[in-house]
């Protein structure tokens, strides 16, 4: 079992205990996240500071809404590096983010099953 | 209450939409700042807005600046949603014209409480506008009949005469006076007299077109301005107005009272460039002629007609007897 990335209790509080809304948010996240993750990886590989900033900002917002604080923090670090043009640190920070994201996606499936259940 | 939500991120939009709908708001959600500014700058656009800070096309502070540039009839209360937490960012957001800001991810209860603050401000503005409109009405209308007051009807007449000269059309001026009104007050009292004046106002308004002007000129005197009124029809229209007063007794707190009215009619085209006061004097002369002819009728003021105008002192005496 991966480390818990999503704080389910906080997420439920954020949606005011609306399980239907929580499911909708998880579905939107599942649909949108891979595209943004890939866009971030492309921006990092091409060392494009503006795009890294923009994609990391979007991912940070999505993860915050999902109460995935550690993943949101990893995205925030990338956003900060992008703003400061610290290109040499992009790869390492992106790897950390991808690692957290992997755990997150595993937990997401478990959450979806729970919400469906 | 309508509220606009602007956020380029779909999860945030969905979360805000549901949270606000549950709280009873009618939500419009858009995905960029340009669309938000367009909606908020509409004359009947939403008056509450939640704006994400970072958005494509136009960011949240940019939307605030655009909205504040617009001369809105109503105030728009705008809250910025931001993950920016530095003092400089907050100051920049508020300086752009935002009323408040909220750090993302938001707590639903805090969000609703902040919006309630916005609603209180908007309600306060509504009450101020209402009070201003009430004062404006009181300053321009007669307190008893709600017709234009003397100052305003004179002003409207002056403007209408200038326009009719420019456009080579005729304005009909009707100086009207209730017959034997003093005896209504003496017999039934002033409350009944007021009922008669209010009913008269109602009937006069119902007898003219929406773009004509009716004002209370004095106690029981009324001034009617018929805009762009062809001379061939003016007399018939004046007689219709006369009939509207006399055809049915007026309801009052003392029961139905038969009332008649005398009217002096003047057609501006027949009088050339004369000052308003002079034209009104001539209309008053025609009104005097109508009184002299037995009342409850219309007399036309004609430049070729020898003036029947009494001397000012005598005029005042006649006014007392009306």
Description:
The complex is a heterodimer of chains A (117) and B (322). Chain A is mainly alpha-helical. Chain A has helices spanning 8-14, 19-45, 49-65, 69-83, 90-116. Chain A is elongated. Chain B is of the alpha/beta class. Chain B has eleven helices and ten strands. Chain B has helices at residues 10-22, 33-40, 60-69, 87-95, 108-140, 150-166, 181-188, 190-207, 231-246, 276-292, 312-321; strands spanning 2-6, 26-30, 48-52, 77-82, 100-103, 172-178, 213-216, 221-226, 261-267, 298-301. In chain B, the strands form two sheets. Chain B has a five-stranded parallel β-sheet, with helices on both faces. A five-stranded mixed β-sheet of chain B has the order 7-8-6-9-10, with helices on both faces. The longest helix of chain B is centred in the middle third of the chain and has 33 residues, at 108-140.
Q: What keywords describe this structure?
A:
heterodimer; A: 117 residues; mainly alpha; 79% helix; 0% strand; elongated; B: 322 residues; alpha/beta; five-stranded parallel sheet; five-stranded mixed sheet; 11 helices; 10 strands
Helices and strands, with pairings:
The complex is a heterodimer of chains A (117) and B (322).
Chain A (H helix, E strand, L loop, with lengths): L7 H7 L4 H27 L3 H17 L3 H15 L6 H27 L1
Chain B lengths: L1 E5 L3 H13 L3 E5 L2 H8 L7 E5 L7 H10 L7 E6 L4 H9 L4 E4 L4 H33 L9 H17 L5 E7 L2 H8 L1 H18 L5 E4 L4 E6 L4 H16 L14 E7 L8 H17 L5 E4 L10 H10 L1
Parallel strand pairs in B: 1-2, 1-3, 3-4, 4-5, 9-10
Antiparallel strand pairs in B: 6-8, 6-9, 7-8
Helix pairs in contact in B: 2-3, 7-8, 8-9
Global Rg of chain B: 30 Å
Cα Rg of chain A: 14 Å
Oligomer: heterodimer
Order of helices and strands of chain A: HHHHH
């Amino acid at each position: 079992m991966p480390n818990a990335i999503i704080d389910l209790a906080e997420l439920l509080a954020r949606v005011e205990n609306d399980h239907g809304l929580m499911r909708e948010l998880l579905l939107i996240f599942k649909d949108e996240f891979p595209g943004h993750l890939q866009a971030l990886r492309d921006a990092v590989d091409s060392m494009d500071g503006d795009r890294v900033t923009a994609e990391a900002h979007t991912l940070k917002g999505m993860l915050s809404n999902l109460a995935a604080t550690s993943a949101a923090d990893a995205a925030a670090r990338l956003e900060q590096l992008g703003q400061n043009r610290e290109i040499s640190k992009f790869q390492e920070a992106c790897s950390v983010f991808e690692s957290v994201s992997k755990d997150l996606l595993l937990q997401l499936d478990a959450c979806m099953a729970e919400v469906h259940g | 209450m309508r509220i606009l939500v602007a956020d380029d991120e779909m999860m945030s939009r969905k979360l805000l939409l549901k949270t606000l709908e549950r709280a009873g708001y009618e939500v419009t959600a858009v995905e960029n700042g340009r669309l938000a500014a367009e909606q908020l700058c509409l004359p009947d656009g939403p008056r509450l807005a939640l704006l994400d800070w970072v958005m494509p096309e136009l960011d949240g502070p940019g939307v605030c600046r655009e909205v504040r540039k617009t001369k809105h009839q109503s105030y728009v209360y705008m809250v910025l949603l931001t993950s920016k937490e530095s003092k400089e960012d907050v100051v920049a957001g508020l300086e752009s014209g935002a009323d408040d800001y909220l750090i993302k991810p938001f707590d639903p209860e805090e969000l609703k409480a902040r919006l309630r603050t916005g609603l209180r401000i908007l309600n306060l503005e509504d009450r101020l506008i209402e009070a201003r409109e009430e004062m404006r009405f009181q300053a321009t209308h007669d307190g008893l009949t709600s017709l234009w007051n003397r100052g305003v009807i004179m002003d409207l007449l002056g403007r209408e005469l200038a326009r009719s000269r420019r456009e080579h059309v005729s304005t009909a001026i009707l100086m009207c006076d209730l017959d034997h009104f003093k005896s209504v007050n003496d017999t039934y009292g002033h409350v009944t007299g007021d009922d008669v004046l209010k009913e008269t106002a109602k009937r006069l308004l119902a007898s003219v077109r929406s773009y004509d002007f009716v004002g209370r000129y004095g106690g029981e005197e009324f001034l009617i301005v018929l805009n762009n009124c062809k001379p061939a029809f003016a007399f018939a229209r004046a007689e219709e107005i006369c009939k509207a007063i006399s055809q049915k007794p007026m309801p009052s707190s003392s029961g139905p009272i038969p009332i008649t009215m005398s009217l002096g009619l003047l057609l501006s085209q027949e009088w050339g460039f004369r000052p308003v006061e002079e034209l009104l004097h001539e209309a008053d002369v025609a009104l005097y002629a109508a009184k002299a002819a037995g009342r409850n009728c219309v007399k036309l003021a004609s430049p070729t007609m020898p003036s029947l105008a009494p001397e000012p002192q005598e005029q005042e005496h006649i006014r007392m007897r009306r």
